[in-house]
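The pair is listed for reference:
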Amino acid sequence: PMPGAARMYPETDVLVMNITQEMIDNLMIPELLDDKSEKLEKYGISKELAEILVKKNKAELFESFCKKFVNLKSAYVGELLLPKLLEIKRKYNLDVDLITSQQIESVLQQLNEQLISKEAVEEIFVAFAKQESVDFSKYKIIDTNDIENDIQHIVEQNKDKQFGAIMHLVMAKY
């Protein structure tokens, strides 16, 4: 049937619906993209990063991660969600869409608890993009006093060996 006021007969296939003021009041109006971006800027990130997070539908994920991982700077969390992943995609030619939000969350959890260093993130994300499993203990942060004690222990146990052999044992451990 032709739509519009010129129609001779009312539409018979569509039921009449009475719209009440209560229905109008209960309408959920979506937040504007600019408003979302401004809200993200309050976390201390740049306007550009906020806009990218909103456009790529990462705003809610960013907010939840910022609330959950309070020991991490919001700007760093935002950088990991998009720019870091794009860098890995470009640098290694990998499909970073294979990296799940749960995997990103697991990395942020490790960082938040200071169990791994920020320098390990790229290598971990590359492994995730290659669909490899990651052993976080491989990336754990080690106290320099512990390293010195281990080296002294290795040297004491191998006093009869040459410097190169001892160095090999130390390098094998670290």
